[in-house]
Amino acid sequence: MATVELRFSALPEHVRTARLVAAAVARRAGVDEAVLDEVRLAVGEACSRAVGLHQISGVTAPVKVALIEEEKQFSIEVGDEAPHAAPGGDTPGVQDGDADVEEDEMGLAVISGLVDDVEVTTGQNGGLIRMTWPTAPPAAALA
Amino acid sequence: MDLSLSTRTVGDRTVVEVGGEIDVYTAPKLREQLVELVNDGNFHLVVDMEGVDFLDSTGLGVLVGGLKRVRAHEGSLRLVCNQERILKIFRITGLTKVFPIHTTVEEAVAATD
């Protein structure tokens, strides 16, 4: 069950807000303090990537972030609505996007380096990055 | 927190002191600063990251871009950083092999290849 959902216009200035909210909700959900920096960075990377994809493809829809608290785990889903090319295929309108593509890949590299449990799915109607961290229930934290 | 930038000259090196958060929003300001310095003939840069609270891949991209520019003039770009959470980002991306990273500005300024 999603505990907090965010939608923001695909603008770089809102990525910081998403980071702050994600870190606050992760802390409340019981994600280890030592991991919060990683949560902040990973969600920032995912949101920056989504903002870039929306801007390149001229998508006016907002970027969506779902912060999902579950038993023993906390997940963050960052969804974009940019049309993704099939691997090896061409995406119309991004021929000049070499630098952006490199940054996109660097963002994904950082995410996969930081987060053990990450799933990236893409389709014609957009992509989704789902990242999951274990949480310590409050009772166990006290014990 | 926003990004703060200040530059000073130490011998033949230009020290860029960066503070705050380097992310997708603020990184363009750092890119502009580095481009301007190189265009003005400053080819030996030391970027002091001790005041940086947050760095993401956009920021890494700008630093790599800066390195490319100074190298085109046989220059150098050295980093000063002691913060584990920032160093970790350089490590997981393999960029510790690309940038000389020093613990103090003095050490970076004195360093030669």
TrEMBL record, chain B:
Q: Where is the STAS domain?
A: 3-112
Q: Name one GO molecular function term.
A: anti-sigma factor antagonist activity
For this protein, the record's Gene3D superfamilies field holds: STAS domain
Q: Which PROSITE patterns match?
A: STAS (PS50801)
**What keywords would UniProt list here?**
Phosphoprotein
Superkingdom of this protein's organism:
Bacteria
Pfam families under this entry? STAS
InterPro entries in the cross-refs: Anti-sigma_ant, STAS_dom, STAS_dom_sf
Read off the PANTHER family from this record.
ANTI-SIGMA FACTOR ANTAGONIST TM_1081-RELATED, ANTI-SIGMA FACTOR ANTAGONIST TM_1081-RELATED-RELATED
Tell me, what does this protein do in biology? Positive regulator of sigma-B activity. Non-phosphorylated RsbV binds to RsbW, preventing its association with sigma-B. When phosphorylated, releases RsbW, which is then free to complex with and inactivate sigma-B.
What family does this chain come from, according to its entry?
Belongs to the anti-sigma-factor antagonist family.
The name this protein carries in UniProt is Anti-sigma factor antagonist
- Give the organism the record lists: Streptomyces corchorusii
